[in-house]
Amino acid sequence: MERIYMDNAATTATDPTVLEEMKPYFTEVYGNPSSFHSFGREARDAVREARDKVADLISADDAKEIVFTSGGTESDNYAIKGVAEELKDKGKHIITSSIEHHAVLHTCEYLEDKGFDVTYLPVDEDGLVDPADVKDAIREDTILITIMLANNEVGTIQPISEISEIAQENDITIHTDAVQAVGSIPVDVNELNVDLLSLSGHKFHSPKGIGALYIRQGTRIEKYLHGGAQERGRRATTENVAGIVGLGKAAQIAGQNLEEKQAKITQLRDKLIDGILEEIDEIKLNGHRTKRLPGNVNFSIRYIEGESILMKLDLAGIAASSGSACTSGSLEASHVLLAMGLSAEVAHGSLRLSLSKYNTEEDIDKVLNVLPEVVSDLRAMSPIYNQD
Amino acid sequence: MERIYMDNAATTATDPTVLEEMKPYFTEVYGNPSSFHSFGREARDAVREARDKVADLISADDAKEIVFTSGGTESDNYAIKGVAEELKDKGKHIITSSIEHHAVLHTCEYLEDKGFDVTYLPVDEDGLVDPADVKDAIREDTILITIMLANNEVGTIQPISEISEIAQENDITIHTDAVQAVGSIPVDVNELNVDLLSLSGHKFHSPKGIGALYIRQGTRIEKYLHGGAQERGRRATTENVAGIVGLGKAAQIAGQNLEEKQAKITQLRDKLIDGILEEIDEIKLNGHRTKRLPGNVNFSIRYIEGESILMKLDLAGIAASSGSACTSGSLEASHVLLAMGLSAEVAHGSLRLSLSKYNTEEDIDKVLNVLPEVVSDLRAMSPIYNQD
Amino acid sequence: MMDYSDKVMDHFENPRNVGEIEDADGVGQVGNPSCGDIMKMYIKVDDDNKISDVKFKTFGCGAAIATSSITTELVKGKTLDEAKELSNQAVAEALGGLPDVKMHCSNLAADALRKAINNYLGIETEEEDDFHCHHQHG
Ligand SMILES: Cc1ncc(COP(=O)(O)O)c(C=O)c1O
Ligand SMILES: Cc1ncc(COP(=O)(O)O)c(C=O)c1O
Ligand code: FES
Ligand code: FES
User: Fold this and answer.
1) CATH architecture of B4-12+257-387
2) TM segments (chain C) (predicted)?
3) Which end of chain C has fewer CB atoms < 10 Å from its terminal CB, N or C?
C-alpha cells in the first residue's frame, strides 16, 4: 500500500541530500573535532561550516552564538534551567504560556519543585498569548520569559517580537522554543529580538538527535552538560559530527526559497482545511486561521475519539497524529486544546495532519477521500452521536 | 599519504556495517517512535531491537534498564546529578577518584558549588584506586560512589567489583563510567555489581552523539532531560533512531568474538609498548602494565613536549594524542598523570597511542619506525636534554 | 506504546454486534466523554436467563472498541451468571493481550456489561463520579 505521511510536526524524513552530505562523516572523516591531528582538523572544519549554515538560517550575527545540542528538548532544558541556575540569586520567577511543549512545561514544573515560581499565561481560543498579559505578569523577581514561537499541536504563531520588546524594557532574559518554526517559516533572531532560541533538526529534514540552542552574545546562562571544553565550554561531549553536518545541510536547504516552499505548503494546507470543512460537519478548526504554521491542520471532530481516528487512518495508509506525538497514546486530553477553552470531550476528538515539502496535491485528495468515511464509520458506532 | 589512526580512545571510525544498518532509518523508516501509526511502529521496533543488543553487550537483566543518551558525557551527568538530586535529603557526600574523565570531575565540581561534598580519592603510580581508600572515605551522608572502569588516558582498569561490594555493604549507590571499557573488554553489570554504568557508542565504532546509561531496576534517580514521556519517562526528546540503531549494531558486533579481538589488539599493543621501550630511552610507560585496556599505550617521553610530538607525528601521517582529546589543545598537564605522581614536566611529554580493531601490524611497524626519529629530533632541539 | 495484536486489530476493523437493541432488556453505560471513552451495552435475555442478543456502542480508543466487540462475542449465549463472571483479564486474553497502558480499557466493557445485567435484574448501581475519569489513563 502506498502510504501517506502527514505527521511532519512529530518528525520529518531526512532529506536524501542531507544524508549524502553526512555519509563521509561516519566512516571516512571520523576524527574527534577536539583532536589535534588532521583527522580532528577535518572534523573541526565540517563542524565550523555547519555552524555557519545554522547561524545563517536564523540570521544570527555570529556563528559562535550557536551551540549544538541533542535536540529541541535539550535546548529547552538548557535554556530554562541554565538561566534559572545562573540568575537564581536575582530572582526566581519565570513566565511561560500554558500551551508550551512538555519540554518547556515539565522543565518549569521541575523548577517549581526547586523553589521557583512559574506563571503559566492563558491563551485565547485561537491559542494566542496576549502580550499585555506578559506585561502584567512581570514582577521584580522575574528572570525569564519563555514563550514558544509556534505551537506544535495547533500551529498558532505567537507575537514574539512584541513580547520580547516587553522583556527588553524590563531587562528580562527571553527564550523562545522555535522548534516547530525553524525551517518552516523565516526566523530571524534579531527581528524576534530574543536572547535564546531552541531549534531541532528533525523537524526540517535533518536526522533526529541533533538540534541547537541560539545564545545571544552576553546572555548569562549556566552550562547544562558538564565535562570537556567542547562548544567553547558551553556543551561538553564529543561532537555528533555527522549529525551536525546534517543539521547544517538541512538548514542550508531550508533557507533556499523558503518563502516559495512556505507558499506551496500553505496552499496545500488550505485546500485540506477547506476540503475537510466542506465534507465533514460538526467539526472545529483548532488554532488561528492565518497566524498558523504553513503545514499545520488541526481539527476537533465531535462524538469520536482521536486514537480510533488515527487507527482507521493508519489502516488506510495515512499517518497522522492526535495531539502531540509525546502524548498520543496516553489518551490524555491535550493541554493545549484545553487551554484554548475546548471541553475535554471535544479535545479528545482532535486530529492533526501536518505537511512538509514532500506532501503533494494527491496526498491531500486521498485524505479528503478517506477521512469523511472514517468519521462517519466511527460516529455510527458512537453512543453520543445522534443520527437523524 | 597513507595515514594511520591511533587515536581510538578519542573516537573511532564508524564500522561500515553499522552505517549500512543505519541508512534506512534516515530517509525510509523515519517515523517518530512515539507516533501511533505504522511509521512510528517501525521506528519503535528498531529502537526495541537496538535496546536488546545494548543490554546483551553488558549482560543487563532487562533491556528496560538501558536508557539511550547523547553520549558518555550526558550519561555521566545524568547519573551523578540524577542521584545527587534524588538523594540530597539523605546526604550530600559523593566519592570519586582524582583521575576521572572531565565529564565526571566537572559534574562533581558543579555539585560542590551547589553544596555537595566530594572526596577525590588518590591513585597509586599505576593509576589504581585502592578499595580500602573507598571504604575509609565512606561517611554517614555518602550517597554516591562514582569510579571509572577504565581510564581514558592511561588505560588502567579499576577493581570495580571490589569497590561495589563496599558500596553494597554500606547501601550506597554506585556508578561507573565505562565509556572506555564497553566494547573493548567484557563488561557485565552484574559481575561489576553496579547500579549505574555509562557507555558511549563512538568509542566502539558506532557514530558519535549516541550513548546509554544503564540504570539497574530500583535505582533511585531523578531524570535529567524533562519533557515528553520517551524512554519510559526517563529521557525526554524524540529518539535519535538512526543513532540508536547504530549503537545497537555496534554493540552486537563488539560482542562477537570479543575476547579474540581483545587478544589481537593486546598483542599489537604489547608489540608497540615493547618496541618503543626498546627504541627510545628515558621514557616511562604510564598506567598499569597488565590491568590495562587492550588498545592503550601511553608514554611520558622526557625532555620534550606533547603537542610538538603530535605535530611531528601528524606530519608523518600518524594521528595520536597527548592526554585526553578534551584537554589536548589546551596544553594543560594531564590531571590523570599528575594524580599518578608524575611531575608536570614529565606529564607534558606524554603521548597516547590508542588502537582499535582496524589497526594492523604494519601500523605498529610504521610508528616504531617514525617515533624514535621524532623524539630524537625534538630532543636535539630541547634545552633541557643533555646530549652525551 | 500502542502495539495491538492482530486480534485487536481485527475486532477494531470489523467490530461485531455494533448498534442498539430497540427493546433491550437491559442497558448499561460506563465512562464519560470528557475522559475520552463511553461504552454502552444492550442485552436481550431469554427464558433460560441466557443472553440471546447483545449490542454495543462505543466512543473511545481502539482498545475500547475492540474490547467492546469481543465482549459481545464472549457473552452471547451465556447465562447471566456466567456473563457476570467475565473478567477484564479474560477479555484481554481473548484479544491476544493488550498493551500494558491499555489494560484498563478492558475494564470498561466488562463493567458496561455488568451494568446492563444489573439493569435487567433491577439492581441499582452506583453512579459514576462525573468529575473524575473512572480509570487511569496512560
Ligand atoms: C515545540 C516543540 N518543542 C520541543 C520539541 C522537542 O524536540 P525534540 O524532540 O527534538 O527534543 C518539540 C518536538 O518534539 C516541539 O514540537
Ligand atoms: C572515560 C570517558 N568518560 C566520558 C567520556 C565522554 O564521552 P562522550 O564524548 O561520548 O560524551 C569519554 C570520552 O570522551 C571518556 O573517555
Ligand atoms: S608555549 Fe605554546 S602553549 Fe605554552
Ligand atoms: S478506554 Fe482505552 S484509553 Fe480509555
Assistant:
1) Alpha-Beta Complex (3.90)
2) none
3) C
Find the helix or strand (DSSP H, E) in which B318 lies.
strand B318-319
Q: Give the nearest chain A residue to C36 (CA atoms).
A: A348
> Strand pairing of B142-146 and A117-121?
unpaired
DSSP secondary structure letters along B89-149: TT--EEEEETT--HHHHHHHHHHHHTT-EEEEE---TTSPPPHHHHHHH--TTEEEEE--S
The DSSP letter of residue A308 is H
Rg of chain A on CA atoms, in Å: 21
Specify the DSSP element, H or E, that contains B206: none
Residues contacting C135, CB < 8 A, separation 6+: C35, C104, C105, C107, C108
Residue written as cell 610530538?
B309
Any chains having at least 3 CB pairs less than 8 A from chain B are A, C
Cell numbers that stand for C69 in this block: 466487540
Return the pLDDT at C126.
65
Q: Cell 531541532, residue?
A: A200
**Gap between the Cα atoms of B107 and C137, Å rounded:** 37
* C-beta A179 within 6 A of ligand 1: yes
Reduce the secondary structure of B254-277 to three states and give it as a string.
HHCCHHHHHHHHHHHHHHHHHHHH
User: Hey, what amino acid is at C21?
Assistant: I
Nearest to B236 by CA among A132, A15, A81: A81
Out of A311, A330, A343, name the one closest to residue C138 (CB): A330
Sorted by where each begins, the domain ranges of chain B are 4-12+257-387, 16-255
CA distance A370 to B130: 69
Q: What cell does A174 get?
A: 527571553
Distance CA B269, CA B273 (A): 6
Helices (H) and strands (E) counted in chain C, each on its own, are 5, 3
Q: Which residues of B95-115 are buried (b: 16+ CB within 10 A; e: fewer)?
A: bbbbbbbbbbbbbbebbeeee
**pLDDT per residue as tens digits for the range C62-90:** 999 999 999 999 999 999 999 999 998 89
B219 lines ligand 2 (CB under 6 A): no
Question: In sequence order, what are the beta bridge partners of A69?
Answer: A211
- DSSP 8-class letter at A37: S
Residue C126 per-residue DSSP state: P
User: In this structure, are residues B172 and B143 in contact, taking their beta carbons and an 8 Å threshold?
Assistant: yes
Q: Is A180's pLDDT higher than 70?
A: yes
Is CATH 3.40.640.10 the classification given to domain A16-255? yes
Cα–Cα distance measured from residue A259 to residue A265, given in angstroms and rounded to the nearest whole number = 10
Q: Exactly one of B326, B338, B368, B370 is catalytic; which is it?
A: B326
Measured CA to CA, the distance from residue A321 to residue C24 in angstroms comes to 37
Look up residue B50 and give its amino acid: A
- Alpha-carbon gap, residue C120 to C20, rounded angstroms: 16
pTM of the model: 0.95
Residue B108 a catalytic site member: no
As for the ipTM of the complex, it is 0.94
